[in-house]
Design a protein that fits this description.
Its EC number is 4.3.2.1. This is argininosuccinate lyase. Keywords: Amino-acid biosynthesis, Arginine biosynthesis, Lyase. One of its GO terms (biological process) is L-arginine biosynthetic process via ornithine. By secondary structure, the protein is mainly alpha-helical. It folds into 3 domains: 85 residues, Fumarase/aspartase (N-terminal domain) (Fumarase C, Chain B, domain 1), CATH 1.10.275.10; 249 residues, Up-down Bundle (Fumarase C, Chain A, domain 2), CATH 1.20.200; 96 residues, Ribonucleotide Reductase Protein R1, domain 1, CATH 1.10.40. It has 19 helices and 6 strands. The strands form 3 sheets. Strands 1-2 form a two-stranded antiparallel ribbon. Strands 3-4 form a two-stranded parallel sheet. A two-stranded antiparallel ribbon has the order 5-6. The longest helix has 36 residues. It is elongated and about 100 Å long.
């Protein structure tokens, strides 16, 4: 027994050494002309599977359409097509069940799926890449992914609009100070202010719809950059994937990232709108304003100051807008110096897009949630309204109605405010004699224009903050957002 120990140890050491030896690398699908493989450092640096596996569903969609077209054109047999389609179904099932082995040495989502398909069905899989390149393949996947992402964002935008409109409908008649330069300007209905954000989000949604329409053209079949000499039908694959048409120019098809730049631009504009909403609500939740109180369910506290109640979600909305803007700047910088057609730099286009979409969806979702969890402190708002002479412009309008030129009316109203400042009172508190001491045009009916409630009723222009105008706006949005 003692004599056999060295032999056992030698065997164990040999086994350990064998296990420690690096396994031979799989030959690259593109490696026919290469005599040696890439180093581990290069492989780690150039792989994209760690993030572009998010495109798997769209990659499989594109491959299904491509295989069906190849069979229709007689470039592969119907039997090969069926084998490919069945294999792709199985690979999709494995991915969705968490059974698929993503391999970094297979570089990206396309090579992982194609190599796995070859492992699964053998020779027919090698025909799938006929008349396509990874250049047109990835652009097809990416356009399909972005198209789906836009659809998700549009749903979230509508949900935020519904939340804002619900908040408006629940606060009928509430008047708040309107600000310019962060100084009190004129009284506005709270509903009117909330609908301003609904309008902004609607423009964002319109930009996304326009972006989606321009995005919805198919690169598949453009191949590396020059197209192919094989008799493919690009219109067939385009229609199968729900695109409007194939892209006309094969070089443009694999070079273009305008659709991504436009998408990120819309996201950045939306993020700025949400940041402004966040800023307003953060200010209004402060003790200095005290106009809103967020519920505990959308607030956080301090680890050291027990009295604190912070509107953190909207602060983060404001903060995360920087990420979305940064994602746009990243891609603009990436594209600015690239010659046509495809360059490996463009592998870096996906992570900013994935980040932008994830972030903007989160911002929209939490903004909608926050809107449904805040209370407007009507008594505090009412007490704040007298400051700032919010009815001064309405007083100028009164004088215009009396035939006084506006510049003269402006001057008279300004002198009236100056008198109020001296007396520490409101315009409504000035006697008729005091007003006539400034200008004799004043009559008793001036008091129908003074005070924020009266001022609100005097707004009559289309789109204004007058009660009737705002009621019309509310009716429009209630119908458009299908809330009736």
């Amino acid at each position: 027994m003692e004599a056999s120990r060295p032999q056992v140890q030698v065997q164990a050491q040999a086994q350990a050494q064998a296990q420690a030896q690096p396994k031979p690398k799989e030959a690259k699908l593109w490696g026919g002309r290469f005599e040696e493989g890439v180093t581990d450092v290069v492989e780690r640096f150039t792989e994209s599977i760690s993030f572009d596996k998010a495109l798997y569903k769209h990659d499989i969609m594109g491959s299904r359409a491509h295989a069906s077209m190849l069979a229709h054109q007689g470039l592969i047999s119907a039997s090969d097509r069926d084998s490919i389609l069945q294999g792709l179904d199985e690979i999709e099932r494995r991915i969705e069940n968490g059974e698929f082995n993503w391999r970094a040495d297979r570089e990206d989502v396309h090579m992982n799926i194609e190599a796995a398909l070859t492992d699964l069905i053998g020779e027919p899989a090698k025909k799938l890449h006929t008349a396509r390149s990874r250049n047109d393949q990835v652009l097809t996947d990416f356009r399909l992914w972005c198209r789906d992402a836009i659809d998700k964002i549009l749903v979230s935008m509508k949900q935020l609009q519904v939340s804002l409109l619900t908040l408006a409908l629940n606060n009928e008649g509430v008047i708040v100070p309107g600000y310019t330069h962060l100084q009190r300007a004129q009284p506005v209905l709270l509903q009117h202010l909330l609908l301003a954000y609904v309008e902004e989000i609607e423009r964002d949604a319109g930009r996304l719809v326009d972006c989606r329409a321009r995005m919805n053209f198919c690169p598949l079949g453009a191949c590396a950059l020059a197209g192919t000499g094989l008799p493919i039908d690009r219109f067939m694959t385009s229609e199968a994937l729900g695109f409007t048409a194939p892209l006309r120019n094969s070089i443009d098809a694999v070079s273009d990232r305008d659709f991504v730049l436009e998408f990120l631009s819309v996201n950045a504009i939306t993020a700025v709108h949400l940041s402004r909403l966040g800023e307003e609500w953060v200010l209004w939740a402060s003790e200095e304003f005290g106009f809103i109180t967020p519920s505990d369910s959308v607030s956080t506290g301090s680890s050291i100051m027990p009295q604190k109640k912070n509107p953190d979600p909207m602060e983060l909305v404001r903060g995360k807008s920087a990420r979305v803007i940064g994602d746009l700047v990243t891609l603009l910088t990436l594209c600015k110096g690239l010659p046509h057609a495809y360059n490996r730099d463009l592998q870096e286009d996906k992570e900013p897009v994935f980040d932008s979409v994830k972030t903007i969806l989160g911002m929209l979702e939490v903004s909608a949630e926050f809107a449904l969890k805040i209370t407007f402190n009507r008594e505090r708002i009412q007490k704040a309204l007298p400051a700032g002479h919010l009815d001064a412009t309405t007083l100028a309008d009164y004088l215009v109605n009396k035939g006084v030129p506006f510049r003269t009316s402006h001057d008279i109203a300004g002198k009236s405010v100056a008198l109020c400042t001296l007396k520490n009172c409101q315009l409504l508190d000035l006697s008729l004699d005091e007003l006539r001491s400034i200008n004799p045009v004043f009559e008793e009916d001036v008091y129908e224009y003074l005070g924020v409630e009266n001022a609100i009723q005097k707004f009559v222009s289309y789109g204004s903050t007058g009660s009737a105008c705002v009621a019309s706006q509310l009716d429009y949005w209630t119908k458009k957002l299908e809330m009736k």
